[in-house]
Design goal:
50% of the residues lie in helices and 20% in strands. The chain contains 16 helices and 16 strands. A 5-stranded antiparallel β-sheet has the order 2-1-5-4-3, with helices on both faces. Strands 11-12-10-15-16 form a 5-stranded mixed β-sheet, with helices on both faces. Strands 7-6-9-8 form a 4-stranded antiparallel β-sheet.
Length: 533
């Protein structure tokens, strides 16, 4: 009987152990699933925000570039007035026709010239223009003012532009403010939100104008007083915002709502443009929203960019949901079968190994990152001290890389960095370490090196390879590098001082004209140690 009771107790203990193990398996499995789901969700969200931020920067840069192009058009027109005296209607038309603004500068409504007319000469001016073939010409709106400005040239002189002939833009406060700013600074100025006089009452768009002052030839206009005294008028261009933005974005931004506001206040009154006509910028429910500002001819524009439902759908990733569903299924099976628990643990260990890979290697190039580099430097120094060998550290900073990002975008820049990593790996031994610190900065760790000459040979080999043209996605890029080299023990006796010496040598290479190699100077180790105290 006692043995029977003992057996029952053993069976009971076994059942309790099974229940405990099953509960623990379920809890552990669900926790692992939750962590994986959370990580996948964060990665997917970060990728989406990165894509959105890139699109925002790209759109803003396109607007800046287009405004800069139009400013150069006005400066070219101002050059006509400096080269030709007097500028006639025919010569102005011939100049603008040469620019072919309809073809080459989409979005611009025209190029015009507004002349300053003193009140005492107003009648004389009107009579002169009427005699030149415009019997109905007058300066409008009516009224007595301290000064008159009148649009006498505007090309193309047809269609809606005819409505602006003779208009005194100085009579309007918004235009007046931009014209006065342009006159007083001698620079380009952009007006606030206006309705152009060219509008006929149908499909009216918000607009703005860009002004550049014209001064009397041969005068010195260093002061505000000089500029006011010598002002002849303004060359200018009117813009309708919908037309302007259509030329900037085309059909590319259908998944984004781009809204532009005059100055820094976001309200329907200050809105210049709304691509989706939906007031998305004022709706906090959208996930992807960005508010940024750009300077447009001494004037501030606020650009509100919102990801529409189409964009959100593109960015939606199935990976987190798949991970969650799979994890729950596995967790349920683990509660029934012990061997699935072991399999799930193996998956967790594999996931941990992948997380270690992300922690020690650069995700873009696959090169060791700073953390792994620091560990290998310490190991190399320990070995070098024991064997009395040399260790070299090469700091490599790419030259001419920033223009690639600025002109072609970060996608091309990333492809170029991958090519740089490939070439760098090919220049060092398997026992050495090629690493990327971030951005366009790389490091090469040379262990068991023979001395300065051998280090300079490797550095020059790297420089030669990085100077060769890069063929990336159909484009050819020419970059170079500034390389600083430091040796153990001559230039540093520990990782910190050796790194400092190599960094200083790299900056010396940059100061020396770039695309060169500089070995740390004698005494660099001492200076690096003192600077780290």
């Amino acid at each position: 009987m006692r043995q029977i009771e003992q057996r029952k107790q053993e069976v009971s203990d076994l059942f309790r152990a099974r229940e405990l193990l099953t509960a623990l398996s379920l809890i552990v499995s669900l926790l692992i699933t939750y962590n994986l789901w959370t990580t996948a969700s964060q990665v997917a969200a970060q990728a989406s925000y990165t894509t959105f931020d890139f699109r925002v920067r790209e759109t803003n840069e396109r607007i800046r570039q287009r405004l800069g192009i139009y400013e150069q058009v006005l400066r070219a027109t101002a050059g006509l007035f400096n080269a030709v005296n007097p500028v006639t209607r025919d010569s102005f038309r011939a100049f603008v026709d040469t620019l072919q603004i309809t073809t080459n500068y989409p979005g611009i409504q025209g190029i015009g010239y507004a002349e300053v007319v003193p009140p005492a000469k107003l009648k004389q001016h009107i009579d002169s223009v009427r005699r030149s073939g415009f019997p109905d010409y007058t300066v409008w709106p009516d009224g007595k003012r301290d000064i008159y400005t009148t649009i006498i040239f505007l090309e193309p002189f047809s269609g809606r532009n005819l409505r602006a002939f003779g208009y005194d833009m100085f009579s309007d406060p918004t235009r007046h403010a931009a014209m006065a700013l342009s006159r007083d600074t001698g620079q380009t100025a952009v007006s606030g939100k206006v309705i152009l006089v060219q509008e006929a009452g149908r499909e009216v768009q918000a607009g703005f104008l860009m002004y550049l002052p014209i001064f009397r030839r041969g005068t010195v206009n260093d002061t505000q007083q000089d500029r006011r005294a010598n002002l002849l008028g303004w060359v200018y261009s009117p813009f309708r915002m919908d037309d302007f933005m259509r030329s900037v974005n085309g059909e590319k931004a259908e998944d984004l709502d781009i809204e532009i506001y005059d100055d820094t206040t976001l309200s329907p009154k200050t809105r210049l443009y709304d691509s989706a006509k939906s007031d998305s910028a004022l709706d906090p429910q959208h996930i992807f929203r960005s508010i940024s500002r750009i300077e447009a001819g001494n004037h501030t524009w606020t650009i509100a960019t919102t990801g529409l439902r189409v964009f959100e759908a593109k960015m939606l990733s199935d990976r987190p949901l798949i991970i969650l569903q799979a994890g729950i299924s596995i967790s349920l099976l683990v509660t029934l079968l012990i061997w699935l628990f072991l399999d799930d643990r193996a998956r967790a260990l594999q996931a941990a190994e992948q997380a270690m890979q992300l922690a020690l290697y650069d995700t873009l190039t696959g090169l060791p990152n700073r953390k792994l580099l620091d560990e290998r430097i310490e190991q190399a120094l320990v070995k070098a001290k024991r064997n009395r060998d040399h260790v070299a550290l090469l700091f490599i900073d790419l030259d001419k890389f920033k223009p690639v990002n600025d002109h072609y975008g970060h996608a091309y820049g990333d492809l170029l960095l991958k090519e740089v990593a490939t070439r760098l790996r090919s220049c060092v031994r398997e026992s050495d370490t090629a690493s990327r610190l971030g951005g366009d900065e790389f490091v090469a760790l040379l262990s068991d090196t023979e001395g300065p000459h051998a280090v300079e040979t490797v550095a020059n080999k790297i420089l030669e390879r990085l100077t060769e043209p890069f063929e990336v996605a159909g484009h050819t890029f020419h970059i170079s590098a500034s390389i600083g080299a430091a040796l153990y023990p001559e230039h540093g006796t520990d990782a910190k001082s050796l790194t400092k010496s190599a960094d200083l040598a790299m900056y010396d290479a940059k100061k020396s004209g770039r695309s060169t190699v500089r070995l740390a100077a004698n005494g660099a180790a001492k200076d690096a140690v003192q600077s780290n105290r």
